[in-house]
Amino acid sequence: MSSSALLLRGGQVLRPDRTSGRADVLVRDGVIQEIGADLAAPGAEVIDATGRLVLPGFVDAHRHLWLGALSASSSGVPLFTYAQQINEGHGDAFTADDIYAGVLWGALQAINAGVTTVADWAHNLGSPADIDANVRALSDSGIRARLFFGGKATSSGDVSRFADHARDMLARHPAGGRLEFGLGLRGPSMSTPEETEREFTLARELGLPISIHAGMAGLPGAVTQLHEQRLLGPDVNYAHATEFSTREWELVAGSGGTVTATPTVDLTMGLGVRPATGPAAGHGVAAGLGADTVAYGPSDLFGEMRLALAAERVHTNAPVVARGEMPSELAQDHQHLLEVATRGGAQVLGFDKITGELSPGFRADLITVDLRGPHLDGFGDPVLAAFLGAGPRDVDTVVVDGTVLKRDGVLSGPHVERARQLVLASRERIRARRR
Q1: Which of 35, 161, 307, 429 has the highest count of CB atoms within 10 angstroms of its CB?
Q2: Domains in the chain, ordered, with CATH?
């Protein structure tokens, strides 16, 4: 057995069929080789997973990682006020060094919370140097990522000016590695029809998937306009999608498009009153889950799953409760939301052949959740116990591509302390610019 072998011994392993049971997981050269009882693995590094739940790593399908430098900096304001505070008030003055520090720290925040794959929707890139800094930060963090790069959210959003740089990046980072690319476009809600067509055409010329913000309260009709322009397709992901009409859901489903719900931001920022996870399931649309912005919300998907489940049940229960009755059935369940946060996100990002589940042949992107605390001491279903009560502090181990990035509850990658110092220095520069 080579030195690149890793054995997680004796955990409760969640299988793709939603069952869980005690098993070992053997990883070799970054790939899950075998799952079974009492596996022999001479020479392998052994991680004792006794008392832990072994899960596929979470897939955050929509997050702005550069905002890692601005954690908990905004609250209680609607979208456009938030954009003035954060994107304009702080983000416009970011240098490439600030981008690097924010993205690296943001990626470590995600890893700490059990996220092994992230869609980094980079909307504060003003130059090729900014893009390169973003790429370096993702690479250094150890996370698996699809970088949806674009222009600044507040100005110069047209990504066509980065076309040559994009071609160069694709040549330097061929498909199949930990880092792949997409384009984060403004979409019909933030650009003219002519600009939208030009940007979508560029993405398809480059062979890159597209992500846009769409279906938010007060910004209707994005899908309808894309349909009229004949720009719909399976390569389009719609972040938020809280206010799609029935017809728009049908158009997305018919075109093979996907959606990503970000429940905390969607509900608390007023982007809608129902996360997209419910309608997506009803229309057969693949859906992922995202934390969106740590400037406004939490960094973990445990809370996003619980909030999505509660919100969907509120929505479906409301008419029954309004009649003075008690619901006899409840919408969705914890297993469905766990799939959205893992396999669903992988499908949204085009990674579902390599990650999102624990199966031999898949890349070794996995986490363990320590169930030994009183708050996670379940009666018999460890998956339900983790869903109901777990958070980032309970994530004991994080493995990405076979590399251990969190061990015994502590981030262990080579850039952790450096990232902390860089983000502290960046924050001082950001504050100084506001004085």
Answers
A1: 307
A2: 5-56+361-411 (2.30.40.10), 58-346 (3.20.20.140)
